[in-house]
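G.,

No rush on this.
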Amino acid sequence: MSDKIYKMILLKRRLCKRLEIVVIAMLAISFYISVLLFGGFKGPEIIHVTDLHRCPACYGVTVCPELYSNQIILDSSHWSNMFNAKNIYHGYTKSSRRVILKKLAHDWELNEFDSKLCSEWRLNNDCKPVQLLNMTNIDDKVLDIVEYNITWPDTEPRKGLVLCPYAYSIYDLLQPVFSNNKNNYKSEMLNIWTMLSINPEPIILQVLPRSKGWPVPAFGGVCGRLEVVAYEGEPLSSLLHVAWHRKLNYAQKILEAAMDFTFKHERFRFYLMDWSLDNIVVNERDEITFVDLEDVIVLDKHISPKPELVDWYKRYNRESIGPGFSFSIENMCKHHLSDHNLWAACYILIGDESPLLYPIPKEVNASRPYFDRLLSACLNGDDRFKTIRKLQHVIEEMLNDEKILRSGVS
């Protein structure tokens, strides 16, 4: 997909999210009026949300026992469970831990996927999902969708995961997703094909588990077309009123996450494509978590490059493509290392859309005039890797400065 088209799609998606918030707010008012007039209402039951009958064209069944034995329960007191345009539900476990249950797509997207399912597999129009277990070309279909996403034709929207530069790396990426039961291989591959077609987030959360220090939600499992993850906090976009030194702490952790996604995994790099304050949440311990991991470029850094990858061993520094959050998928996939995550992190801090650290308090500008210059160099400079290291050092020193902490700059 061309960079211009992808940017338009990304902007359209963000606009839709904001419109959804307005619609949900209006529905919330209607809901509370209805409660006052007519009494309480019950939200949907889990059995009606999982779409388990669509398996194996679903995400899997790993958490079904917990859902169907009421170990995980929908929160009937949460108003968004009543009017849910985003198919995101709130719930809790028997131990009272809050969880989020996500269908990972809008109803119209799931309906569109189902309407094309039979033709996609060259079956009769009235086929049943269970018939997919008789297919012999499941591995080929998984490779096809990965290959499709690498080529991203300009005339078609990209769907699912971008794994580059070669599609065959998918099998190594998926190792943490497979169970030890070889008898389930076909079913699991169909689950993977479905997630790649609809939303690859459950795959990413298993490849980058929170238990190993990745700043992503703890993965609870999947049941039908429902993903269960831990509730990890409120979005940064709702915390712009907090004291500036807390924002500085968030900024340090965002920069650390950018480096981790780029370097931490021994085999792959993970370039996040939808960085925004809405997609980074903060818990009561001021720990950050990246949510909404639908759009990720996964780059295999240990491939043997073919002759056409002439610049593979060169570092790709994001060039000036245009204003706003824009980037080149093609260039990232042609180089073994890109500074995309670093640039994106700095865009969150001082970019065009609700910058986290701007305005910088006068006291900080007076005592450390070089701090703003470092931020600008991170966003617009030539060597972000070098700049990030300096920036992290300066922020660490500032976070240990009692004058800043005591002043409560805001």
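When you get to it, here's the other one too:
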Amino acid sequence: MAPTLLRKMSVAFRDLAATVNQGMEMEVRPFAQACSYIASLVEHLGPHFRFAVADFAPKVANINAASESFRSLKSMLEADIERNNVQNPGSPSRNLLRLKRVIEVLKVLFEMILDTDFDDQGDNSMDSQGWEAYSIVFGKQHEPGLKTKVLRFLPKIPSKAQFLVNLEENVESCAANLRTIVEAAPVITNNINGLYNSMGLDLNL
């Protein structure tokens, strides 16, 4: 049986975290591949979230394109600094930060799903937990107009039961994959934060 999308994503995250834990530099191409699974995951939320995919996918493509020239995220950032490209819209440095924040959102959301045992009622509903995770990470980053747009579409998020069907997962398999991602995500994002801090780059680009 072919691995599900969530399984591919969890393995990609696990491998990125393992690279960091082994003291090696995180590479551009595997990072971009892991993020491409996130774009596919968002597509499973339904057509109302095409705007999110349309925003996210080009950033993934930009980082993936950078893998043709740079092996590691560190060397990619160093090149942006040398070219005075860090602050420019659409630069790999800015796109990497935005992808990192999406990983942080997923980490918070997946933790909440696991902590509430996939309960989908009231404050534990997918849309309520999605909004809370979004607000924690992007609350100070996004303009009111974008927040309003996100809030308008949140009720269109499928239930957790439907999401499992869409992903071809059951509760047990989904929980195992989510745990892997939750454990790996902070290793990945902390490593990226460390790169920016070590180079004197603003984490609020």
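DSSP finds nine helices and no strands in the chain. Residues 170 and 197 are 40 Å apart (CA to CA).

Enjoy the weekend,
O.
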